Amino acid sequence: MRLHPATELVLLSCALLLVYGIPSPLLPAAVLVCAVAGAAVSPRVRFRSWLLTLLVLAGPMLVMVGIIQGLFYPGTDVQVLAEFGPAAVTVEGLALAVQLWLRVAAMIAVCALFAIGSNPSRAFDGLLTLRVPLSLAYVCAAALSLVPLAQHRVRAALAARAARGWNTEKLSVRLRLLTGVLTGLLVTAITQLDQRHDALAQRGFGMTPRPSPAQFYPQGAVQRGLRWGAAVGSLLLVSTSLAGLLPLPSATDLLGVLDA
């Protein structure tokens, strides 16, 4: 079953709500696993590109929180697993590092899955279906259009530099060229967005509060039920967790067995 863009947006919002609304690493881990499965089976997502995006964005975060929290967790009332001079591996530090990284990785995974598998037109139509104000829907769709624009401009810039003799295969060379590439990308994005806004204004954009979608997306009771069920279920889970009625283990509980 191909999901309606509105359903994709609701599932994305519910996933982010669960990741940050429930203080247990089980939810971010489950969302991360679902994102991996979704990227693997989706016909509109190249799994290699999605995985590379996840590794590039979440990998440095893993190293950072692992060093800062895992080895230099502040406090004296902690369970020490190992000591290396001024650094110490503690259960509390590892728990916080795991929780932070899983949340960030899950957020990046689901957002990259939606950004790579969707396009501005689908996102705009989905937001209109959810009755989002027209101006906000346009801003969100325009922001999503920056993803393919950035990919195209970076490839073109690196190809141009390579034609001029730069060895763009080396990471050090790419880092040296990064400032110029990003500057050109920013100028291009601002120029295109301004031109697009002028073109839409000349064609009467905003004159109709609810324009017709660009494409027809079949949806029935199943997808509407999925949207409502996901939204209500996520809110109930978060409310139950905040009330202390959801017995999910924390990261400290899961890692406490290491000190046993």
Task: Give an account of the 3D structure.
There is one protein chain. The protein is mostly helical and 260 residues long. It has 9 helices and 2 strands; from the N terminus they run αααββαααααα. A two-stranded antiparallel sheet has the order 1-2. A hairpin with a 2-residue loop joins β1 and β2. α2 packs parallel to α4 and α6 crosses α7. It is flat. The relative contact order is 0.16. The mean pLDDT is 79.
In which range does the helix fraction lie?
over 70%
Q: Sheet bearing the most strands, described? A: 2 strands, antiparallel
β-sheet strand percentage: under 5%
Helix and strand element order: HHHEEHHHHHH
Radius of gyration: 22 Å
Give the total of beta strands. 2
Helical run tally: 9
**How far apart lie the N and C ends?**
47 Å
| Biggest sheet: strand arrangement | 1-2
Relevant terms:
two-stranded antiparallel ribbon, mainly alpha, flat, 2 strands, 9 helices, 260 residues
What's the arrangement of secondary structure elements?
Elements: H1 5-21, H2 26-41, H3 47-71, E1 80-84, E2 87-90, H4 91-117, H5 120-129, H6 134-163, H7 171-202, H8 221-242, H9 251-255
Antiparallel strand pairs: 1-2
Summarize the structure.
The chain has 260 residues and is mostly helical. The protein is built from nine helices and two strands; from the N terminus they run αααββαααααα.
